[in-house]
Write a structure and sequence with these properties.
Layout lengths: L11 H16 L12 E6 L5 H12 L3 E5 L13 H8 L5 E6 L4 H8 L4 E6 L5 H15 L6 E5 L6 H10 L6 E5 L8 H9 L5 E4 L11 E4 L10 H7 L7 H4 L7 E3 L20 H20 L5
Parallel strand pairs: 1-2, 1-3, 3-4, 5-6, 5-8, 6-7, 8-9
Helix pairs in contact: 1-10, 2-10, 3-4, 5-6, 5-10
The structure holds N-carbamoyl-L-aspartate.
N-carbamoyl-L-aspartate binds next to helix 2 and helix 6.
């Protein structure tokens, strides 16, 4: 039995195979409409979510399976003090696979130790978010045909943004990728990510504070929200929350085929006028998120299309 807690739980070959399968699901949804008949997904969400939880649920329903779960710690037994270990032992009796989001880094990894069903990390604190990474990779691959030679700008809260950490971790395995890390001083990519992913693999990267001075170099611009819930101090959040706002005027300096990604939810980071620009790929990303989660669950459950 396999769990997906970290993006590196999937090798490059497994990742590519999942993206191929997700691409086929996008083109031939009818072929997969009942591959998970009789299978049940549990969504255990101890933290707010719209896209991740509902896309997992839609993905399972698209394959003919069923779904149970909770969408906040307050309406689960966590509110009574139950441990993640006990909860997953119980859920293992009710479902075939589970997706867990938790504010504590490492909680899904701990659950996996006690689980009898595959556990998928749907976001753990400021740590990792592997299925968002599959979504991002599918979107980049569809727009750019692959990853080789791309200059990828990551902009915003690179400290607390788990989607950023997972995307760097997965992409660092592809040769020829260069990163431009755009953030305020206080929200820079954590040192462990720089050391383990970028320096250890000798990947070219730059850390800058100004988006406009680098936007013309980018093939991908990955915008992120400042992660309010991870700040200790509200004054710091208020000071940093509007550090970057992508507007139509800034986009005029970018390459005509650059793609703008954002894991969403967006707060102020992307002006609404950008939504109509063909470079805006964030709603396409949402659609791809359903296909990659279908592909991942189908693969972890070991079911095949006829
Ligand atoms: C992201 C998350 O939860 O980390 N959202 C998502 O899953 N699409 C990004 C965010 O909350 O800013």
């Amino acid at each position: 039995m396999k769990h997906v807690i970290d993006p590196l739980d999937l090798s490059v070959e497994e990742t590519e195979a999942l993206l191929d399968l997700a691409g086929d699901m996008a083109e031939n949804p009818a072929k997969y409409a009942s591959v998970c008949a009789g299978k049940r997904l549990a969504t255990l969400f101890y933290e707010p979510s719209t896209r991740t939880r509902l896309s997992f649920e839609a993905a399972m329903m698209n394959m003919g399976g069923t779904v149970i779960g909770f969408s906040s710690a307050d309406n689960s037994s966590a509110a009574k003090g139950e441990s993640v270990a006990d909860t997953i032992r119980v859920i293992s009796c009710y479902a075939d696979i589970c997706a867990m989001r938790h504010p504590k880094e490492g909680a899904p990894a701990r659950a996996a130790r006690y689980s009898r069903i595959p556990v998928i990390n749907a976001g753990d604190g400021g740590h990792q978010h592997p299925t968002q990474t599959l979504t991002d990779l599918m979107t980049i691959r569809r727009r750019k045909g692959g990853f080789q030679g791309l200059t990828i700008g990551l902009c915003g809260d690179l400290k607390f943004g788990r989607t950023v950490h997972s995307l760097i971790r997965s992409l660092a395995r592809y040769g020829g990728v260069r990163f431009v890390l755009i953030s305020p001083e206080e929200l820079r990519v954590p040192e462990y990510v720089i050391e383990e992913e970028l320096k250890a693999k000798n990947l070219p990267y730059r850390e800058v504070e100004d988006l406009e001075s680098v936007i013309a170099d980018l093939d991908i611009l990955y915008m992120t929200r400042v992660q309010k819930e991870r700040f200790f101090n509200e004054a710091d959040y208020i000071r940093l929350k509007d550090s970057y706002i992508l507007t139509g005027a800034k986009l005029r300096k970018a390459k005509p085929d650059m793609a703008v990604l954002h894991p969403l939810p967006r707060v102020n980071e992307i002006a609404l006028e950008v939504d109509d620009d063909p470079r805006a790929a964030y709603f396409e990303q949402v659609q791809n998120g359903v296909y990659v989660r279908m592909a991942l669950m189908m693969t972890l459950l070991g079911v095949k299309a006829c």
